[in-house]
Please model this.
Amino acid sequence: MRRHTILFLVVFLWLWCHEASAFWGSDSKGSPSGLNVAAGFDVNTITTLSGTALAPPRRGEGQHTEMPVATNRGTVSVILGPWWYWEKHAITIQINQELTITGSLAQGKNGALYLFTQRIENRSSGESITLRTESGAPLWSGYGSGSQGGGYQNNGSGSRSGAGNRGGMRGGRR
Amino acid sequence: MSPGQYSFHIVAGICHHSSVSAPHLVLNMVKTTRLIIGIPLCFTLLVAWFAWSALSSAPKMAAENLRGAGLSISAAIEQLAAADSSFHSLVRYTTPDIAYFALIDQQGIVRFHTNPGLIGTHYAHSIQKTFPDGISEQRELLGTGEVAYLLRTKIHPNHNQYLLVLAMHTYRADQVIRRAQTGVTIVSVLTASLWVLTVVLFFMLRREEHRRREMLRREEMARLGEMGAIMAHEIRNPLAGIKGFAQLAQASDSLEQTRSYADIIVSQSLRMEELVNDLLSFAREDREERQTTDLAELVHQSVAMILVEARPANIQVEHEFHTPLMCRVVADRITQMLLNLMKNGIQAMPDGGLLRIGLEHVGKTARITIADNGIGIPPENLPHIFEAFWTSKAQGTGLGLALCRKVAEEHGGSLKIESAIGTGTTATIVLPTAF
Model:
């Protein structure tokens, strides 16, 4: 009887603490943002932001290149694709340089804003680089630069209806 | 019952009186355990209820917050759309909570989108199925991995009907959920700490209880050995006398001499009988039913009985009690206690003296005092007078005062002895009254 009581208490406390510990991020899917850093992109949330680089690009979460940029929407973490791809095709970005970035904006579960870059232009140096197609397909994944075809939907939810290469709105329910 | 069992019963009774019994300790342990487990258990249940209610209400509150914000934004978009049928003014409309929004006409064409590249495209779903009657809301996983709040509703700018699809970030609205989770985390940690402390306390108490039980057992064994030695001594002396005088009587030719030996044998037998009676009285459990009895009558009877011993010893007995005083007592036991104390008083005055007996009603108690002006008890003996088998007399059993205190306590009362050398001794018995 005593053994069963102790066992019950241990299981109860474990379940309880497990539920509570979710808040501290122990249930995150491997990243503090909770976002799909490797392949995340949504055409619906494409926007263009201008701002100043707060730091040069560096290796961020999930081996992806990340750079903090001060914009009119606050500090945004700009995701620039895999580190190896950025090293290979990088443009020079230094601190305090003026940038214009187009990409898919998302808010992480930590409350921070992330921009999955489609195209980035360094207005200070005049350099620019395209990292994704107009539909959001990443160029490092074999779609090839300049390829505008395909109705790629980054979260694997299937083809999009609508305007061919530019994609369309997603529907459905979770 | 075998003789061995009988003697053990007496020993157990004496040990029971001298210290706390093992069953009593076990009962205390059970009560303590229940208390130690019960309080944290109640606290845990209370905290669990609080956590459950906080966690279950938080998502509803977050949903209501999102719905309120979504409807406000929808109203603002409808007004802007009504004011500008080209929807150009919507481009500048933004709030931190909007992930994106779009207006779709009844043909399923996207007429406005926060991503200008999607304007003019076809909406992904059948427009008939997606135009809700009121509002449609859900949480949806976006391609970025973000879970957004998606609201669909119809708006009617300038008598045209559009489907507004509004996606909102949920971080701010979900703050209420995170706060609830923080609260639950904190109380969970506190509760877990409480349980850890409880378990530690429980094991410490259990160890202490085992130690106490072991000490008690050793004390009982020591007392048993001591008592055995005393009993052997008390019985062996008269037994040796009986044996010796019986052998003399056996060898004697004179009838007169034989009678004298027989008297001594009877006297020694009576001494042994007295010892056995005292032991039985002392070991006896208080199982007799108490009767409402006039205590004054019992004291009066005891005084009458003791006068037989007091007068030859040149002792004057004074008593003062008139009022009937009703108490619930076992009359025989109380009489035995009073006689023991009065005999002690008489024995303390070998050259005669005064024995004063008093009975008074004090609050809800009856107070009996038995005072002598005898030799008194030396101060160094006072701490031992209630110990079983302790005696300062040559012929005493050492059970008299121990028995008196036991009787008083069995009745919910007390016995106190005050004494001074050369002045005398006063025994005060306090018993609860019946009314």
